[in-house]
Each structure stands twice: as C-alpha cells, then as structure tokens.
Amino acid sequence: MEFSGAKLALFLGADLLVIRRDNRPDIPFPDHLDLPGGGREMGESPEACVLRETAEEVGLQLDPAELIWSRNYVRRSGRHWLFAAHRPAGTARDVRFGDEGQGWMMMSPEAFMRHPMTVPFFPSQLQDYLDTT
C-alpha cells in the first residue's frame, strides 16, 4: 500500500512524548506540537518508517512488536499511518533528541489534544486510539 509517512503516539508511562516542530516557513505546521515520525523512504513499510523516524528523532529503538495499534488516514498529502506504543515512564531518561525540531516534552494526552498549537489532525486521530483502550 502506498503511503506518505507515519507517526507514533509514544506513551512513556501515562504521558505522550511530544516534539515541537521547527519554526520555519518552508514546513507544514511550523512551531506546532507533533509526534515522532515522518516521511517514508523508498520501499519502507509503515512500521519500518515509524521505527526509523522515532530512532532518528528521539533516539529510542523500538521493536516492531511494541507497536500495539495502528490506523491509516488519508490527507491532502496522501495516506499517513498513526501507531501507538507504550513504554515505562523511566524511558524518558533514554531520549536523545535528534536534529529536527526545537525540543521535546512529556504531555498528558488530554493536554496534547487540547493544546492550540497541536498539529490539527492529531487530536481526533489520537482519540481514535484512546477509544480502543
């Protein structure tokens, strides 16, 4: 299946790992709150894409078996996947922020979904996952 990219709702304990996007006019949603993940590289599966991007952006290596939920969504830029995974809260000390974005933080899912600077399509997509738990 063709797709453009994949994102990960990564829970460390009860909270989400959130990235603040770069504040550049040449990217979609500059300075917004985002989830780890990004664009597909040639031939990648959705799982491989989200695992690679998560490792690049926050330095965490996840096993494919940790991806406990997924759903794909069609947007103007193509088909995108959202995955969910959970790790213990102490995993936050292992985060090594990469070179994309302004920084990272931990937020409750509710605060992330209500924040005015969250990338607009994530609140409803994250709610899709939360509705299954």
TrEMBL record:
Keywords: Hydrolase. It comes from the Bacteria. SUPFAM superfamilies: Nudix (SSF55811). GO terms for molecular function: hydrolase activity. Residues 1-130 form the Nudix hydrolase domain. Pfam families: NUDIX. Its cofactor is Mg(2+). This is 8-oxo-dGTP diphosphatase.
